[in-house]
Please model this.
Amino acid sequence: MKIAVVTGASSGIGRSAAIEIAKRTTGVILTYGDNAQGGLETAAAIEENGGTAVALPLDVGASGTFAAFRDTVAGVLRDTWQRDTFDYLVNNAGFARTSLIEDTTEETFDSLMRVLLKGPYFLTQKLLPLMTDGGAIVNTSSNSAATAGLEPGYSAYASMKGGLNVLTRYMAKEFSTRRIRVNAVSPGSTRTRIADDAFARFPEVIPALAARTALGRIGEPDDIGAMIATLVSEDSRWVTAQNIEVSGGYNL
Model:
């Protein structure tokens, strides 16, 4: 059995990724931030399908807690699976804030940086000693960091995701000595709770986004979760250093 660590799995893409990965006879350690109930619900959904899951709290923006989190993960691996290592890491936890450059505060910029770029960087660094050789990492990026089709207001968020794309390639280069593959996925507009549940609050924006998408709808979390599960699996054993847009052909 393989074991995966999936951050930000209390809802949306992270929940879907955790459930999809678990379907492939993979045990899952999933993390949640403010939404403890959501994290427990994800774990329960995995266990209802015959899988094994453990939900842990983690603030990806608080890098000072990562050493203690690593120790907790090591304990869970021993107690739950009688293992010293895990196989897959999905750096998915995140949040979004939008504002024009002229209106963006340093506080907003710094909080996005801590969660979206510094968090994955140092969490991966801390967990790397617990990863098996031949494992896989997937970082959740965003098509807001693409070179065309930009929307005003995403400058800070997309800059961090652009940094994550570069980090993905460097991780793939450096970790290749241990045969650990590293890829990113870049979702387009996806029906999640991001940006304070924006799609639930502003459903009127959905038809316009669907009209700009070649396949004619906005994304669902399962669309992205299935791709993440595929990328960590042996099906993608010859794929590394890639950033795969999973957007249904947005702005095609």
Helices lie at 12-22, 36-48, 66-81, 106-127, 155-175, 194-201, 206-211, 221-232.
